[in-house]
Amino acid sequence: MKPAFLALALTPLLCATAAAQTSVAVYGIVDTGLTYVTNVNAAGDDVVKMPTQTGSLPSRIGFRGTEELGNGLAAVFVLENGLSVDTGQASQGGRLFGRQAWVGLKTAYGTLMLGRQQNMTFYATQKSDVLGPNLFAISSIDPYIPNARSDNAIGYLGNINGIVLGATWSTGRDASAAGGPAATNCAGEVAGDSRACRQVTALVGLERDRYGVNVSYDRMNGGPGAAFGLSASTSNDRRVTANGYMMAGATKIGAGVLARDVHTATGDVKSNLYYAGVTHPLSATTRVDVQAARRDQKDSANDTTMLVARLTYAFSKRTAAYGAIGTMDNDGLAAISLDAGGTAGPGKRQNGVMAGLRHTF
To answer: Which of 244-247's residues contact partners 24+ apart within 8 Å by CB, and which partners?
Structure first.
């Protein structure tokens, strides 16, 4: 994505917002590093590389705008592009604004959004998952978690006196055929098949000063040509989560469970993903995060156990360096990689270390 092309694409938008006296903010994250992992294939080889998908956080550039309409009503929009710092390419299958592209209306009772947006599975683990979309994290076990977005979606998210409510409904959940877990080639909106590629997500939660809990539901239907075995509208992939966190002084403790049921023409595959973690500040500039997780696949020996520790040092509010160590123990024929987007030898334990630098703006 060339800067000149991006500037040209945004010129009408920026001119229009200036005329309407809309407040527009430009923001972003640039984050990358180096990682070393073992047993990346059946031969047991290791590799040193610069990760593509994420470091401690996925890199991005975004535009967020607000126009106050009066009486507590505001027009809002978000356009957010994901990028791979190792190559400079756009993420999410090369989309211009693959992370988010939506417009909406905001009130004291929540925000109504129209367009490509993060759905409720994305929001469900935001506070309980202490590592988030780190290169070594539960997102390696289930890559959908940090990529839980829906195309062609109508969404609502609100916090009313600590009660969090949210939902999305998509007429065609994913129109891209490239880009890994963020692209599953299920455009939907098929005449004569009202189930094809539809997606519904929902969230109910409680937020207080020192703790929070929520539950979420996510059902994505298949469609012609869709990835991951969901090639018919009668197939579906369902996730139900329960998540919570609490503060013990300055220490955060978070945990949750994700139950998944993939229903296809060849049968059902069911699994449970359990995770628990702790974040503790060692000083005003240094923080340590530790997380353990296990994925149990029902009626199968292909289970996986993960343990990760990360240390972050903040040079300032915007710039930080980090390092992490981790292990992913694959049982049976499981081949889940420790590093998101990587590979692992079937049934092998994979160990890894990483170090990187992050700057936000």
So the answer is: 244/128, 244/211, 244/212, 244/213, 244/214, 245/127, 245/128, 245/211, 245/212, 246/210, 246/211, 247/210, 247/211
How far apart, in Å, are the Cα atoms of 181 and each of 142, 144, 213, 316? 9, 6, 26, 33
Q: For 284-298, what is each residue's pLDDT tens digit?
A: 999 999 999 999 999
The amino acid at 72 = G
Q: How far apart are CA 60 and CA 304, in angstroms?
A: 30
- Give the residue among 99, 39, 35 at the shortest CA–CA distance from 63: 99
**Residues composing the chain:** 361
Q: Which CATH superfamily is domain 23-360 in?
A: Porin (2.40.160.10)
**Rounded distance, CA 211 to CA 17, Å?**
38
Q: Is residue 228 a contact partner of residue 235, using CB atoms and an 8 Å limit?
A: no
| 3 phi and psi angles, rounded to 5 deg | -60, -35
pTM comes to 0.90
> Phi then psi for 355, rounded to 5 degrees?
-150, 145
Residue 295 host element (H or E)? strand 286-297
Q: Which residues contact 348 (CB under 8 A, 6 or more apart)?
A: 39, 42, 44, 330, 335
pLDDT-based confidence at residue 140 (cuts at 50, 70, 90): very high
Alpha-helical segments (H) within the chain: 3-19, 120-124, 138-141
**Predicted pLDDT at 102:** 98
Among 275, 272, 308, 271, residue whose Cα is nearest residue 293 = 275
